[in-house]
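Internal ticket #5521
Category: modeling
Description: The requester needs a full-assembly model to guide mutagenesis choices. All entity lines are attached below as received. Residue total reported by intake: 491.
Assigned to: D.W.
Attached entities:
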Amino acid sequence: MKAYTLVMTLLIFATSTFANVAVIVHPSNSNTVDAAAITKIFTGKAKSFGDGSKAVPLSQKSSSATTTEFNKKALKKSSSQLKAYWSKLVFTGKGTPPKELSNDADVIKMVSTNPNTIGFVSAGSADGSVKVVHTY
Amino acid sequence: MKIKLLFALIVAYSLPLQAEINISGFASVNGGKVLSGKGVFGNEATFLADYPIVSTYTEDFSMKPESLFGLQFTGDLTEGLTATAQVVARGANDYDAKFEWAYISYDLNENWTLQAGKKRLPLFYYSDFFDVGYAYVWMRAPADNYTWQIFNYNGINALYSGSIGDWSLSANLYGGREDDTHNKLLSDFFFKVPVREIWKDILGGVIQVNNDWLEIRATHMQYTNEREISGQPYDFGNGNMERDGKFYGLAVNADFGNLFILTELNKLDLGDDFDTYMVSVGYRFDNITPFISYADYEQDATDGENHNTTSFGIRWDFHSSAAFKIQYDDVEDDSVNLAVAGDSESITFGIDVVF
């Protein structure tokens, strides 16, 4: 029984700590969007998809667990490192950070209606209205 | 009166003002004091933490030298056109707010942006975001390197950003001039009389490449210097009323995830060479980042200006938009006739925020 509880605890711990993040685009977007492209788009180093169409990254509130997960896995930065990175660009006229939406539903809504956008949501919440291009 | 107001409101609402204005800002509230120091030329013991702003700490604790408050307004006029103004109020200037940046920016295409107006002179790696303490690890960019008296310019800048394989590439080509009618560093600190400092025919370029762990920045800038002291044109020697300066800089930063190394190597050729360099090493323990740093300034001349600073400190990201920093600086001023502020040991600390 004790062993079972331990296994359960580990499982719960594992799922909550390593919750997957899905990167989503509009279903009509047929570009290859790999991890390298995602990093570049979300750090302002690339402004378009492979076919040359404009890429508009959408983030979520910095306090959300999904955002923390995405920053860590896709951008390899803590939220304060990312904030420092963006403040460097914002106050020198070299870039603007992605717009922050409030939750998965808002990101899905925006991505499903605007072919230029790219966002991230917790893996389970992506539905048929968007296309998952990468998971972390 | 009411009708007039109503009319004004109608006019205001009907104007085709489509610009979305974004306001962002940064602030630093810092304090510190000299723990021990020699002082030079009969002056009290002083730590010159920032040359161009003349941030001087003495043995009396003060929060004015390096505290500042900055607001940035960006009007997005759509189709790649923006207008940006940055207003900064510095404790060192009694919080007298001044426009530090005021420029119009236009995206020609995905890679090229043209900017015109008043901007920061991008001599050093940290020049552009010198005022944004939150963006770097120390209390300040190393003072022995960031010594030059002109730090803004009025002109035109072409900005390129693109990539080559896994490397991101950005470049700047800029030109302009700066006429600082009352240069703070020269007037208040060195000459002690009003000095007008002119850097004209400024022409410079910056190239920066980075991949996910390595960043290299190289720069060159040239200008012609004219000066007026107490309203009189200044003779730089042998009847030369102007002189040419050439600046060279190289910065290499490596970030291994937790461990990071920051380096800068610069030279200003004004006839004499003025060589500066700095090396900093830090390690991120989650939200606590201790660091050590060494910065050096050397004038290649007999009895020139020579000084260096050894620093160590901690940055603590205690909040998602704020960092607390504390730093100890040991300044060695080896110059004699050109002594700047003398030897000193100081402690400074404060909070940086961005919003």
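Resolution: model delivered.
Comment from assignee: Residues 322 and 353 of chain B are 4 Å apart (CA to CA).
Ticket closed.
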